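Annotated sample (chain length 371).
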Amino acid sequence: MTGLQDKLTPAQVEEFGRELDEIRQRIVADLGQADVDYIHNVIKTQRALEVTGRGLLFAGFFPPAWVAGVAALSVAKILDNMEIGHNVMHGQYDWTRDPALSSQKFEWDNVAPAENWRHSHNYMHHTYTNILDKDRDIGYGVLRMDPAQKWNPYYLGNPVYAVALAFMFQWGVMLHDLEFDRIVKGERKWSDNKEVGLKMLKKAGRQVGKDYVLFPLLTGPLAPLTFLGNATANLTRNLWAFSIIFCGHFPADVESFTEEETENESRGQWYLRQILGSANITGGKLFHVMTGNLSHQIEHHLFPDIPARRYPEIAGEVRAICEKYGLPYNTGPLHKQLFSVAKKIVKLAMPWNGEPRATATVENDKTLRAA
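Output written by the structure step:
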């Protein structure tokens, strides 16, 4: 592994990993009723907001009711996807043995099938975080988000593709599993997508039928307004999720790695990669809840299966450990991180911004692999 990681000796890497393991072990041992009560309260709030939002759309002829209904439904969809769905499907509440909180049974309000997402996100992204050609979340097979990605004229549209992905984010997450980029390269066949594609069609059909057929029809003559309200709520959720996720992965100074650099990495080196490949977003308590605590992306990448509500209480410790070892702790307000991401997207659309990755010396590489 390269760059800042060369500052740590093998002994430091081992001690660094041990200190983070201690945080994890302490939190796991402390999990209990407070965590269960928290997620149940969030679920109750989300359901109340959804019922309220859909109810207000029945009075959509009155503009304030329509606006309030769309706002309530938007927040409900954000909570369902981020603070509930994302975190439950990570297995953060499997220890409760509650079927409603089972990572293998939960299904979210999103066109992306939970089963597909668990593979592409839980396994591929969190195992191979920011490893080029392994972590397909780098650019989602659509964008150039790292200078080591070979430039071609297609990437001149980088900003346009990013805006389109933001507006259609749930669909982008769904189609992500078709791996179009690998098909174009000849590494995958269309026939390989049959099973995955059928799951997508089934889930997307249910979502489209619910938001754009069933609920609009239930409001009778107000169907067009309800259709528009549901579309607006989905758009709001898409833009919010895109912003939070991209700000946690792609601001300036977030690093990426090669397969060779991460071969045979130790637990401490894996932790190191998560910190160097992630960024946080500062904000208040409500803001963090609305992000599903993915505003603590560093802590999430370190401990993806620990209830996200615990991230704020350990963030200070993680930051102190980073400072102790001279490692960066990338954090900043939403507007700053979002501007940084936008700047990178535009910059990497240009051919002259392709840079070869710095490589470690042979001695450093051998030393770290021996750690």
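Annotation: The two ends are 12 Å apart (CA to CA).
Annotation: DSSP finds 15 helices and two strands in the chain.
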